[in-house]
Design brief:
alpha+beta; Phosphorylase Kinase, domain 1; Multidrug-efflux Transporter 1 Regulator Bmrr, Chain A; 2 domains; nine-stranded antiparallel sheet; 3 helices; 9 strands; globular; disordered N terminus
């Protein structure tokens, strides 16, 4: 039996296709209220998230993933959403998964782990710079520094720490990844 010949690029594309960012994940609603060549300002609306805060962020993803995989009081599996956000909070690292819009404070499954909690993120304005590549610390710092410099030059005040937002799986090719650095701003 003869198999069709594939070049290496075709084979890699077929293997990575299921992990591409084209998969439809829900993301929070927002309106773009200002846009220039470097950043945009978005108006986000209230939304629920599941959050964990820890001095070492290595297990934060696993804790949140366990929660959406059914390790909650209702044993309910919850669809993954985008982005996953990280920021410093009280000297520790916070990681959040936004919850699908079908949930509200009355129907959201309660976490069973004490270091995992449901939080309401109040709507507001966020300045956002989008970039591709790896979701490394170096790449994030580079882009959050570009963003803060531009915000200062436009006299826009920040209201909190920088937020790292990642949208794609680690299997997505770096040039196809969507990453963002964000600041809540006074607008």
């Amino acid at each position: 039996m003869k198999f069709p010949k594939f070049n290496i690029l075709t084979l890699c594309t077929l293997l990575l296709l299921p992990y591409s960012s084209s998969m439809a994940y829900e993301e929070p609603n927002y309106e773009v209220v200002k846009k220039n060549e470097i950043y945009e300002i978005r108006k986000y609306f209230d939304r629920l998230a599941v959050e964990t805060i820890d001095s070492g962020s290595k297990n934060n993803f696993r804790k949140l993933f366990n929660y959406i995989s059914g390790r909650n009081e209702d044993n309910e599996k919850i669809k993954m959403t985008i982005p996953v956000t990280q920021f410093e909070k009280n000297g520790n690292m916070s990681m959040q998964f936004y919850l699908p819009s079908k949930f509200n404070s009355k129907n959201v499954p309660k976490p069973i782990k004490k270091n995992v909690k449901i939080v309401n993120i109040e709507g507001g304005y966020y300045a956002v710079i989008r970039y591709s590549g790896r979701a490394s610390d170096k790449n994030f710092v580079k882009h959050k520094d570009i963003l803060i410099k531009e915000l200062k030059s436009n006299n826009i005040s920040t209201l909190g720490p920088p937020i790292r937002a990642t949208y794609d799986s680690p299997f997505t090719l770096p040039m196809n990844r969507r990453n963002e650095a964000m600041y809540k701003v006074e607008y």
